[in-house]
Automatic annotation (TrEMBL):
Organism: Maridesulfovibrio salexigens (strain ATCC 14822 / DSM 2638 / NCIMB 8403 / VKM B-1763)
E.C. code: 6.2.1.1
Cross-referenced NCBIfam families: Ac_CoA_lig_AcsA, PRK00174.1
Segments forming domain AMP-binding enzyme C-terminal: 537-615
Domain annotation AMP-dependent synthetase/ligase: ranges: 97-476
Protein name, as recorded: Acetate--CoA ligase
InterPro entries, per database record: Ac_CoA_lig (IPR011904), ACAS_N (IPR032387), AMP-bd_C (IPR025110), AMP-bd_C_sf (IPR045851), AMP-binding_CS (IPR020845), AMP-dep_synth/lig_dom (IPR000873), ANL_N_sf (IPR042099)
GO molecular function: acetate-CoA ligase activity; AMP binding; ATP binding
Pfam families: ACAS_N, AMP-binding, AMP-binding_C
Keywords per UniProt: Acetylation, ATP-binding, Ligase, Nucleotide-binding
Length: 622
């Protein structure tokens, strides 16, 4: 079993870390508040979320907090009108936040740009008007194939401001994947960059776009907007392509925020499942805004002086919720870094923390394990005393890495929050608050309003200490609100497997204190550096090779990345294994899916173990 090593280290962990007295005094939400919130949510879930919603601005209030009449098609804040961007920008420029830094961005070569809320508001409005000039309106889709740049944030917000739906494709994904997304999402506009810096190299993104759009995969695609970043030569198709700078130059810095229904779509985010094809999940303006705002402020105990840094790429849900929307909704300063954490050397992140006085740092266990290899020398070279809260997400946080972060980055002064959530949930679901008692390796308890449990395949609770399936039993506001593609099938996957409960796809156990320990995926999904990849996706990539007959992929433990893929392959008649073929197949996966999908090894077999119905038995491999 691939999670065994992690599991063993989790099972043997008994240390607890209590909050420092100062934290208990200063925290906005103290243990009593937390208890009261849990009690309120237990007796009246709607009142709890209604209170959270009251902290934001609405053009029209809801008729119902949560309409459960057509469960599991829950509708949050039905009847309400709002716009998430109005809450992320306009609301702040009417207050002292107007001149506060909204975004601090640092490029990999060391250049930096900063935007106050007012400056960001103006930039977003300009691009919103530019998009309108290209014919983009409410309900239209826009694909963003962009790295970590201010214009990425601007593009997300500009779309949402005019009611268009953004769909980000991670800049590390290949042209083939982009093409698939474009075909499925059918955007009116694609926004990209000429190139960007990554690990000392320029990644030429526009070239990938050109490759992806050969022979027009999208019916409604009219324009490609290209941001200048790396000053590399690109081909511009005069009928289709325009420079971002040219588009916004003459646009006015004012554009009204479109009045949206609470359940109007805000963005589409794809996530890997058990089939070869990622699912396109939709999040909407109202519920997502309430859930992300509340969890951001509570989990990170937000203060007016905070500088918040989430190191996730905006191409993933973590970047959407806690690099862009959460911090801006809360009116805090969010930090974004373009490049690689080891460039030019392994202290880059600590350099950024000290330079900008980052107070809250939210990252992934893989990132910590990567930096851990270099020991404490690098963190010691920098002043990390501004930090007060640390967090991680995306994959099981092994005890060793947790303790390393606690001791070497937080110097024993900062709580390390291990937060569990998913693309599907939109917001943090199971997580400590800075005032919680921490157990390294545990995501502690569900947040107020979240009814999570560990059950068997029939939905019966399993005894404490025993592994089972992680489920959520009651709706929550940032839950995905729609699906592109086959809605029935996707809804059945999440809600019918264990009737009446949301099936998360993770294995977990609860201990005697009600603390949750996440052990890994329950399905055929790999977690490579916190990125979800279906084994079927890797198998499809391999079988595209003309010499490959069949492929089966399993996850194997990796000390840094948590998991990597191992492939078993049978070849077509007349072909034999060779080092060249080995290399070619690895390269094939890289080309098809992008560099994040790492195939550690490939084993050639005469045949693969099968069930009587012909399905590959992956459990007998690995
Ligand atoms: C936010 C995000 C979700 C999957 C999830 C689980 C794994 C996330 C975790 C964790 C252990 C944590 N996961 N947080 N596993 N401990 N704290 O990562 O979304 O990309 O959709 O992945 O990641 O397996 O089901 P997403």
């Amino acid at each position: 079993m691939d999670h065994k090593e992690t599991l063993d280290s989790l099972l043997h962990e008994e240390r607890v870390f209590r909050p420092l007295p100062q934290m208990l005094i200063e925290a906005g939400v103290n243990p009593q508040d937390l208890r009261a919130a849990r009690e309120l949510a237990e007796v009246d879930l709607c009142s709890y979320w209604e209170e959270a919603a009251e902290e934001l601005d609405w053009f029209k209030k809801w008729e119902q907090v949560c309409d459960i009449s057509d469960a599991p098609n829950y509708r949050w804040f039905s009847g309400a009108r709002c716009n998430i961007v109005y809450n992320a920008l306009d609301r702040h420029i009417e207050t002292v936040n107007k001149n506060r830094l909204a975004l601090i961005w640092e490029g990999e070569p060391g250049d930096s740009r900063q935007y106050t809320y007012y400056e960001l508001y103006r930039a977003v409005n300009r691009f919103a008007n530019g998009l309108k000039a290209l014919g983009v309106g409410k309900g239209d889709r826009v694909v963003l194939y962009m790295p970590q740049l201010p214009e990425t944030v601007i593009a997300m917000l500009a779309c949402a401001r005019i009611g268009a739906v953004h769909s980000m494709v991670f800049s590390g994904f290949s042209a083939r994947l982009l093409r698939e997304r474009v075909r499925e999402v059918d955007p009116r506009v694609v926004v990209t960059v000429d190139g960007f810096y990554r690990n000392g190299q320029v990644i030429r993104l526009k070239e990938e776009v050109d490759r992806a759009l050969l022979d027009d995969p999208a019916q409604n695609l009219e324009s490609v907007v290209v941001v200048h970043r790396a000053n590399v030569d690109v081909n511009m198709d005069s009928a289709r392509d325009c420079w971002y700078e040219d588009l916004v130059r003459h646009e006015r810095p004012h554009a009204p925020a479109e009045i949206m229904a609470a359940d109007d779509p805000l963005f589409i985010m794809h996530t890997s499942g058990t089939t070869g094809k990622p699912k396109g999940l939709v999040h909407s303006h109202g519920g997502y805004m309430v859930g992300v705002h509340r969890t951001f402020k509570w989990v990170f105990d937000l203060k007016p002086t905070d500088i918040f840094w989430c190191s996730a790429d905006p191409g993933w849900i973590t970047g959407h919720s806690y690099l862009v929307y959460g911090p801006l909704l809360a009116g805090t300063t969010t930090v974004m870094y373009e490049g690689h954490s080891l460039y030019p050397q392994a202290d880059r992140l600590w350099n950024i923390v000290s330079k900008y006085g980052v107070t809250i740092f939210y990252t992934s266990p893989t990132q910590i394990r990567t930096l851990m290899r270099f020991g404490h020398r690098y963190p010691e070279q920098h002043d990390l005393s501004s930090l007060r809260i640390l967090g991680a997400v995306g994959e099981p946080f092994n005890t060793e890495a947790w303790l390393w972060m606690y001791e070497n980055i937080g110097k024993g002064q900062c709580p390390v929050l291990d937060t569990w959530w998913q693309t599907e949930t939109g917001m943090i679901m199971i997580s400590p608050l800075p005032v919680s008692v921490l157990k390294p390796g545990s995501v502690t308890r569900p947040l107020p309003g979240i009814d999570a449990d560990v059950v068997d395949a029939e939905g019966n609770p399993v005894p404490d200490g025993k592994g089972g399936l992680l489920v959520i039993k009651k709706p929550w506001p940032a839950m995905f609100s729609d699906v592109i593609g086959d809605r029935e099938e996707v809804m059945a996957h999440y809600w019918k497997r264990i009737p009446g409960m949301f099936y998360a796809g993770d294995v977990a156990r609860k201990d005697e204190d009600g603390y949750f320990w996440i052990q890994g995926r329950a399905d055929d999904v790999l977690n490579i550096s916190g990125h979800r990849i279906g084994t079927a996706e890797v198998e499809c990539a391999l079988t595209k090779h003309p010499q490959v007959a069949e492929a089966a992929v399993v996850g194997v433990v990796d000390k840094i990345k948590g998991q990597v893929a191992k492939a078993y392959v049978t070849l077509n008649h007349g072909f034999v294994e060779s080092d060249d073929l080995h290399r070619e197949l690895k390269e094939q996966v890289r080309r098809e899916l992008g560099p994040i999908v790492i195939v550690r090894s490939i084993e050639f077999r005469d045949e693969l173990p099968k069930t009587s119905s012909g399905k590959i038995k992956r459990t007998e491999l690995g």
